[in-house]
Design brief:
The structure is a homodimer of 307-residue chains. Chain A folds into two domains: 8-171 and 207-236, NAD(P)-binding Rossmann-like Domain (Rossmann fold, 3-Layer(aba) Sandwich); 172-205 and 239-299, UDP-galactose 4-epimerase, domain 1, CATH 3.90.25.10. Helix content of chain A is 37%, strand content 20%. Chain A contains eight helices and twelve strands. In chain A, strands 3-2-1-4-5-6-10 form a seven-stranded parallel β-sheet, with helices on both faces. Chain A has a three-stranded mixed β-sheet with strand order 7-9-11. In chain A, strand 5 (119-125), helix 4 (140-159) and strand 6 (162-168) form a beta-alpha-beta unit. The radius of gyration of chain A is 20 Å and the shape is globular. Residues 1-7 of chain A have low confidence and may be disordered. At the A-B interface, helix 3 and helix 4 of A face helix 3 and helix 4 of B.
Chain lengths: 307, 307
Amino acid sequence: MPEVAGAGAVRILLTGGTGYIGRHVAEACLDCGWEVHLLTRPASILPPALDGRVGRHDHQPTFESLNAVLRAVRPECVAHLASAPAGARDPEQVQQTIETNVTLPTLLLEAMAANGIGRFVNTGTFWQHYRGEAFCPVDLYAAAKQAFQDVVRHYAVNRGLVAITLKLFDTYGPDDPRRKIVTLLVDAARKGGDLGMSGGEQILDLTHVADVGRAFVQAIALALAAPGGHEASYFVSGERMSLKELARIVTAAVGQHFAPRFGALAYREREIMVPIDPGTDRLPGWAPKHRVGDMIATLLPGGPAVA
Amino acid sequence: MPEVAGAGAVRILLTGGTGYIGRHVAEACLDCGWEVHLLTRPASILPPALDGRVGRHDHQPTFESLNAVLRAVRPECVAHLASAPAGARDPEQVQQTIETNVTLPTLLLEAMAANGIGRFVNTGTFWQHYRGEAFCPVDLYAAAKQAFQDVVRHYAVNRGLVAITLKLFDTYGPDDPRRKIVTLLVDAARKGGDLGMSGGEQILDLTHVADVGRAFVQAIALALAAPGGHEASYFVSGERMSLKELARIVTAAVGQHFAPRFGALAYREREIMVPIDPGTDRLPGWAPKHRVGDMIATLLPGGPAVA
């Protein structure tokens, strides 16, 4: 746990805290002894694991509503994990993608400025870096994430905001409702039989959700310690392996007869074959603790809990 | 006038066509023999100079509404000049700044994609480049302009859009309601007397609105000729001089007793002292025709018309 002066009094406000990653970030903050508040939509359901341990603050997507929450909570730092889902292709979803990923967090930054709250941790994605480029979006979701970082720059340069953006790669963990690749493979291996897949040569960058929680704690600690106007962006990069190698690890751990048929399906359009190299832009003071090979058992029903 | 194959049939849809610059862009397009349509808000007033010469299409800020207009008009190219005003500081204006400068044009691009319309000219500002940096916004307006360019990148990379962004510096012209620096100085010089001003050492980059109209015509011609997925950003850079030098030119042209008191006022917060150097990013095939010194007479009541 990073050392923060007067850690017992640190008050954090999270957006997206009822989502899968957000819930683990909330738990990691609680593990630090921090006071955790969630900025929630009225329709969101509080995860049972957080019940009674966090403050809940419903809001409407307006400046006035966000301003009222911030004035009441007065957090030392806001961590923004809410986002509209990636991969939306329907024209009707375009407005929601921009409003959730750009308009709402901009109103949040303005309300923070109005209340003198100057520490912000933001969430980005490796999908902003198709073909490893400085900026090349995989889809509109990734473009919206980049667009909001431009707004963050304004508040950093002109309003003194401290802002740290964490760019996530693929994540996994127990009871993951998101139907992501590790969960899909574990479920398929438990059932046995065969499964048609793409070529399997794409490289994945995998981080366990508990390590993601610790990454946000570290970013919040860095934001609390930074001078006004400081802005940085870091990759939260875990373990890299091909999809084929991941399938081999899962099959070995689950121990069932399971035969992925690689090449049965085409690669996705704009499949990322090699995620961007984080280079020197890794989150300082953080390294993943969990390796996929060790964690598969914890993803099975009745498996051991994560240490 | 740039040569465009089958120029008589070219159909252009403009946003912001009822504004000061948009109106001059519409006139420049009409001068090319192009068919001009304006995408308008119901409350907008059509400039008398365009009455009967352009199609008017009121819209709501939704995908469905924009989709209906594009399906009906089927323009070869859309030029986007609508924007929320720069310099807004009120928290209540933040939502409008994002919705007008990011959400609405994103819905427009999605509606273009849905209708197979793949040529787009966008409007940016030198305020995206405070201190001459690759991106450093003067204010939220400039950040929103940059944010929308990230969205444009998505449609160029992933949907085959041809997109050219023109970044404007300061502009001026006759009957300008925008209270910009050239107009303010001409009005002050006509009244005579003295006027408290800032130090006057800031460098201005001034382009006459008729030259801006020709710049958009050139950008539309380039967009019509470019292969799918082409994306570019160009500066529309005119004549550079200090505010002191501009005041001297205006005073000489108006011929009244007028004494600007330089240094009486502080520079603005985040005043741009030297606009970004366009370097090699000037709009190809375009150069300004009008010089400020020659144009002052046309800005006076009853002055000659612009050739």
